[in-house]
Design brief:
The chain is an alpha/beta fold. The chain has 9 helices and 10 strands. The model has no long low-confidence stretch (mean pLDDT 96).
């Protein structure tokens, strides 16, 4: 076996409530290969010149852009969802990223949801060679009640997307096995959010290896396959006691990815 490794990058969301700038600084200092920019309420995250300058200063490439699809970012870059996706794709091309991560629409975004699958395919054609990778989500659960919050659905395996992002925390919350999802997707798997979850109704974003998802087996599967996409650490460090503890979590996640992704 060679010592080649898949590239491991850091999502700027992993340092929240820290800034986009701190995400770049930590990625460079801790030894990550690149950065995924989560376009968020931090104005720097949506400023092409600012993130390009951060990338150049810290000498880490921007590998992907996460469009502002969260409830928290509903008003970032306006309220037109297609406008947000076009702007995300344009930003990705400008900064040299290869992937735009997109969530499926919320069910109450009826017009957006109605043409979403076809619209994403059109975007990929328009912005080729970018991959517009739709992320797996999960049902919202409260006790025994379950609410289908996404349309056309939370499971991208069931839809005709050419490119998909698999997030292990979302798989855990949905009660799915991320390895089986990856195998079902085959070459449609374009992007991985490496994290973990216990199966709680909450979207936990644990350090990989601390939850119940087959994170190790999934990395080994990708390393043995023809996977050419990005592995991006996307963990929740908000509860870290201090900066030292946050950095320890980010280093543990990176070490886990490196250990199990050798080719």
């Amino acid at each position: 076996m060679s010592d080649e490794q898949l590239r491991v990058s850091l999502s700027t969301s992993s340092v929240y409530p820290g800034s986009t700038a701190s995400g770049f600084e930590l990625a460079a200092r801790l030894g990550y290969d690149g950065v995924e920019v989560m376009v968020s309420i931090d104005e720097v995250s949506g400023d092409i010149e600012a993130v390009r300058s951060l990338s150049e200063f810290h000498e880490v490439p921007i590998v992907s852009v996460h469009a502002p699809c969260l409830l928290l970012t509903q008003h970032v870059w306006g309220t037109d969802p297609w406008g947000k996706l076009h702007r995300s794709a344009e930003m990705a091309l400008e900064v040299g990223a290869e992937v735009v991560v997109v969530h499926p629409p919320f069910r109450w975004q009826r017009d957006y949801a109605r043409g979403f699958v076809e619209g994403v395919a059109d975007l990929e054609r328009q912005y080729d060679p970018l991959r517009i990778a739709v992320e797996n989500m999960y049902p919202w659960r409260t006790g025994r009640r379950e609410f289908q919050a996404y349309a056309p659905g939370w499971d991208p395996v069931q839809e005709d997307y050419a490119s998909v992002t698999v997030d292990l925390s979302h798989s855990a919350t949905a009660g799915e096995d991320a390895l089986q999802t990856a195998k079902a997707l085959g070459p449609r798997l374009a992007h991985l959010h490496l994290t973990d979850g216990s199966g709680s109704p909450k979207d936990e974003h644990l350090v990989p290896g601390r939850g119940a998802q087959p994170a190790r087996a999934l990395l080994e599967h990708l390393a043995a396959s023809e996977f050419t996409g990005e592995i991006v650490i996307e963990i929740n460090t908000r509860k870290a006691a201090d900066q030292q503890a946050r950095e320890a979590d980010l280093l543990e996640a990176l070490a886990f990815a490196r250990l199990h992704s050798s080719r």
